[in-house]
Design a protein that fits this description.
Low-confidence stretches: none
Structural class: alpha/beta
Shape: elongated
Number of strands: 22
Largest sheet: 8 strands, mixed
Mean pLDDT: 95
Number of helices: 11
Helix content: 25-40%
Bound molecules: pyridoxal-5'-phosphate
């Protein structure tokens, strides 16, 4: 059996149980929601989405512009809700851009970052009043040529691959050789070629990393990013109107993880803004977040189809799996698989004395398809609903839904 280490637990979940002990999602019984679908369903709690944004806003200085990185959860009702709560949206494809523009109208700030933007995507960005975060000098010239063809100017910012990254970050996207942005040392050369007739310089985008739970690491990354942008601004065709310093706030998915101290992140930003006041002028400072805004609000509900024992391990086999939620299986950027929080929807309160240690798996014919390894749950039966928490980001849209040709999952905002 497992070695005796001090028991690590999951950070507290923002959900309640009803009087019968069953899981509630924004006041609705998870069992009733699951019963509306004959496939697994991702349920996003509107009240938690709203409180996540408002709690964060109250920790951040008022001058910080909060953007939502749509790729974390592109489910239309979620994007529609969040777009009313944030100052701008960041997209990573023309598909996300079209979705956003159909929801928010032409004036809401939208920026488009990502390597390998095709000409049609650059053209769409110009047509939809979207700022393109340039990833290379050739991309700058392509955007300029398309803008000239359209007899207009394109809004463009420069994405910088900084010489530092976010310490303790799960997925590093800055420092070293990267396909994202231009190395900081290449930026003066880009500005020397800036096609002022065709491109309207808007500012900088410096993304240093993702999924950090350390406020001090985030404080350092935000400070380094802002200072680098102000330094590079000396070479720019005009002073930046906005400086996107990335985001990076993570989610406590695993046992022992603690939620990031948003107040400490906000205090660091307040200090940074105050000490850079002169240099910043009226440039907007943008924080762009994906998972932090949506993960906590999402619950994946899947039904137990079979229960079996193999050499002493009890398996709960569900109708869900990694084709809907790859990250829970440990195969989305993790080195060692660890458990997300898992519960039985009928007894979220954990009032049953009758518990057992089980391994929860999906229905895919691969050993990779695990939803929970050796978790202690109330005794479950076929037909019961398993709830997996912190599933509101990088779920269906980041999972290999075609793998094994099982049905697609459903999604609901409640
Ligand atoms: C993916 C991405 C984000 C969002 O990352 P999260 O970890 O979900 O917060 C933000 N900015 C850029 C440029 C990204 O590519």
């Amino acid at each position: 059996m497992a070695e005796k280490a001090p028991e690590k637990v999951h950070a507290p979940l923002p959900f309640q149980a009803g009087e019968d002990g069953a899981l509630l999602i924004n006041g609705q019984r998870a069992l009733d929601i699951a019963a509306r679908h004959d496939v697994p369903v991702f349920v996003y709690d509107e009240a938690i989405l709203r409180s996540t944004v408002s709690n964060l806003r109250s920790a951040l200085p008022a001058a910080i512009n909060l953007h939502y990185a749509v790729k974390a959860n592109p489910f239309e009702p979620v994007v529609a809700l969040l777009s009313g709560l944030v100052d701008g949206l960041d997209v990573a494809s023309a598909g996300e851009l079209a979705l956003v523009r159909q929801l928010v109208g032409p004036q809401k700030p939208v920026s488009f970052a990502g390597p390998g933007k095709r000409d049609a995507e650059l053209a769409a960005a110009i047509e939809m009043n979207c700022c393109v975060n340039l990833e290379s000098i050739p991309e700058m010239h392509r955007l300029a040529a398309i803008a000239r063809e359209k007899n207009t100017q394109a809004k463009a910012a420069v994405r910088v691959n900084p010489p530092f990254d976010l310490r303790g970050s799960g997925m590093r996207m800055g420092g070293g050789a990267k396909p994202f942005g231009l190395d900081d040392v290449q930026v003066p050369d880009l500005f020397a070629q800036w096609p002022s007739d065709a491109l309207d310089f808007r500012g900088f985008h410096i993304f240093t990393g993702s999924q950090s739970l350390s406020a001090s690491a985030l404080n350092d990354a935000h400070k380094n990013a802002l200072h680098l942008a102000l330094e590079l601004a000396r070479h720019a065709p005009c002073f930046p109107r906005s400086i996107n310093i990335g985001g990076g706030l993570g989610v406590p998915y695993f046992p022992g993880d603690q939620a990031v101290d948003a107040q400490q992140v906000g205090d660091g930003l307040a200090h940074l803004l105050a000490s850079s006041k002169q240099a910043l002028g009226d440039a907007k400072v943008i924080l762009e977040l994906g998972r932090y805004l949506t993960a906590e609000a999402g619950v994946y509900l899947t039904r137990i189809v079979d229960k079996k024992v193999s050499r002493g391990t009890t398996f709960l086999v569900t109708d869900g799996g990694l084709h809907h939620q790859l990250a829970v299986s440990g195969n989305f950027g993790q080195v060692f698989r660890k458990n997300y929080p898992v519960a039985l929807a009928k007894d979220f309160a954990g009032s049953s004395q009758d518990t057992e240690v089980v391994t929860v798996v999906g229905c895919l014919c691969t050993p990779l398809d695990r939803l929970g390894d050796e978790v202690s749950l109330p005794v479950a039966e076929v037909g019961d609903i398993v709830a997996v928490f912190r599933c509101g980001a990088y779920g269906p849209s980041a999972s290999p839904s075609g793998f094994l040709s099982h049905p697609q999952c459903a999604e609901e905002l409640v």
